[in-house]
Design a protein that fits this description.
The complex is a heterodimer of chains A (about 270) and B (about 210).
Chain A (H helix, E strand, L loop, with lengths): L9 E2 L4 E7 L2 E7 L6 H18 L7 H6 L10 H16 L16 H18 L5 E5 L2 E5 L8 E6 L9 E7 L2 E7 L20 E8 L2 H13 L4 H6 L5 E6 L3 E4 L13
Helix pairs in contact in A: 1-4, 4-5
Chain B lengths: L78 E2 L42 E4 L3 E2 L4 E9 L2 E9 L8 E2 L8 E5 L9 E3 L6 H14 L2
Parallel strand pairs in B: 1-5
Antiparallel strand pairs in B: 2-4, 3-4, 4-5, 6-7
Classes of the chains: A alpha+beta (about 270), B mainly beta (about 210).
């Protein structure tokens, strides 16, 4: 399977699909509803661009960069920024500090929450326009609604964490009206640190996929659970309404007890 | 607000159907086909139901059953899977032992029981063998003073094609498998990316240091 290419908007057998690079990652929107147009996609991408402009720590002019430089007082924060900070605080409490947007250097970086939050909002945008069958994939986090062009639940592959050259798949899940997020460290450079152990790298678990009622919920708990190392999958097991699939560095996967409800679907 | 599990061991039993001697709820995953011949997708009777979010208090070797009760008369949970023995350490007397693994919240102590109309006999009761899809599950449950004070797995799934890892944190064994490359078509892929915040920040810091 070739790696994702950034695509021009193109019609699928029903609907439209396009991939663009925004927020430093490929974002794919595939709308199966026959009434979808390329204009539909453009609206979704415009939303992601606005999120990037506000939350990118890579952009000097972003609101988050200005906050990190101390140039903005709290009363001047945007509504979206306040919302993301409040959600981050809530998640930090619910995960006993394992989710924390402040990194060891003291810099605020809410990208672990913003990604899922933005996808969720973009999905709400599509739903508000009456679209029912679509997925949005931003950097491997997916919100799947309704069914694909073939009338089946959306088929999501969990990526092989040991193949960084090509995209390999080690598990397939069938999703409708829910979200999946995968946290991992199989690219060069650890990108998730354990807030309880300073800058120590996590390397017991190389990939943790979480399926939840929506991609925002899945994303925030996947980020936190991944920071817990081997205990993360137990954390997801104890979380009602969430399932998980963790892969360790030996290539052994551990799944929560309800995970397999997603690995098949009833054929009509 | 999150709800972690339904009962803690030591909490007063409110649901009379909990005791494993009664048939556990059948869990039928929507849209799935039961594997194997004629088996129900019966739910592991202890999965998610008796989760304690505080770590088990292990007994020191040689201590008797009565020593398991802390000074307030309530015992914390021990779940003993058949093969792995929990590490033996000195009995902790303090009411809130520090968790050795991350716990979202420590379990709050149940209120002192004052009612004299007991619902459950004290003792140990064996549940039926239940087909839990990957194998059989059977548990013993021990009750005292209307509280579940112990659960023991007499049987649990250990399929020959999977390795079963036993979590030391009072969660029943989760199923494991060696990952296998799939060849089938998918609509999209879920995987981690290299561009999440921490990586970008550390890259940015490194670049800043590299500036002349």
């Amino acid at each position: 399977m070739s790696s994702q290419q950034f695509t021009r908007p193109r019609p699928t057998s029903n609907g439209v699909k396009e991939t663009r690079s925004i927020m430093g990652m490929p974002i794919t929107v595939d709308v199966a509803d026959t009434s979808a147009t390329t204009g539909t996609l453009a609206q979704v991408f415009a939303y992601f661009t606005s999120v990037d402009e506000r939350f990118s720590t890579y952009k000097k002019t972003s609101e988050i960069s200005r906050i990190n430089r101390g140039e903005l007082k709290e009363s001047a924060y945007s509504g979206d920024m306040k919302e993301v900070f409040a959600l981050s605080e809530k998640t930090k409490k619910e995960t006993a500090g394992y989710f924390d947007i402040r990194n060891p250097q003291g810099v605020l970086d809410p990208s672990g929450l913003v990604k899922g939050w933005a996808i969720f909002n973009a999905a709400q945008l599509l739903k508000s326009h009456g679209f029912k069958d679509f997925y949005i994939d931003a950097g491997g986090d997916v919100q799947a609604e309704g069914r694909n062009e073939n009338g089946t639940p959306w088929r999501i592959g969990i990526r092989d964490p040991f193949n960084t050259e090509d995209v390999g798949i080690v598990k397939i899940v069938y999703l409708t009206d829910c979200g999946i997020a995968t946290s991992g460290n199989y690219f060069r450079g650890q990108h998730i640190y354990n807030p309880h152990e300073g800058a120590e790298p996590i390397n017991d678990i190389v990939s943790l996929s979480v399926i939840g009622p929506n991609v925002y919920e899945a994303d925030r708990f996947a980020t936190a659970a991944f920071a817990m190392g081997r205990d993360g999958i137990s954390f997801i097991e104890r979380l009602p309404g969430f399932e998980g699939y963790a892969i360790d560095r030996e290539g052994i996967a551990t799944m929560t007890s309800g995970f397999e409800r997603y690995t098949t679907y009833a054929h009509d | 607000m999150l709800i972690f599990g339904v009962y803690s061991l030591g909490e007063r039993i409110h649901d009379p159907t909990y005791i494993a001697a009664n048939a556990p709820a059948i869990k039928q995953a929507p849209g799935t086909v039961a594997a194997g011949s004629g088996s129900n997708n019966a739910r592991l009777p202890v999965a998610r139901d008796i989760v304690s979010v505080s770590p088990p208090i292990a007994r020191a070797r040689g201590e008797s059953e009565d020593d398991e009760y802390g000074e307030d008369g309530y015992r914390d949970t021990v779940v003993r899977p058949r093969i792995a023995q929990p590490a033996r350490t000195a009995l902790a007397i303090s009411p809130a032992p520090a968790p050795v693994q991350p716990a979202p919240q420590p379990a709050s102590r149940p209120a002192m029981q004052t009612a004299t109309n007991k619902i459950y006999k004290d003792g140990t009761f064996t549940g039926p063998v239940v087909d839990a899809y990957y194998g059989n599950v059977q548990v013993n449950v021990t009750t005292k003073s209307d509280r579940i004070v112990d659960v023991q797995f007499l049987d649990y799934p250990h399929d020959r094609n999977t390795s079963v890892y036993i979590n030391s944190y009072a969660t029943p064994a989760l199923r494991s498998e060696a990952i296998q490359i799939q060849g089938a078509q998918v609509d999209t892929v879920s995987g981690a990316t290299a561009t999440s915040g921490g990586f970008r920040n550390s890259l940015a810091s490194a670049l800043a240091q590299a500036r002349i």
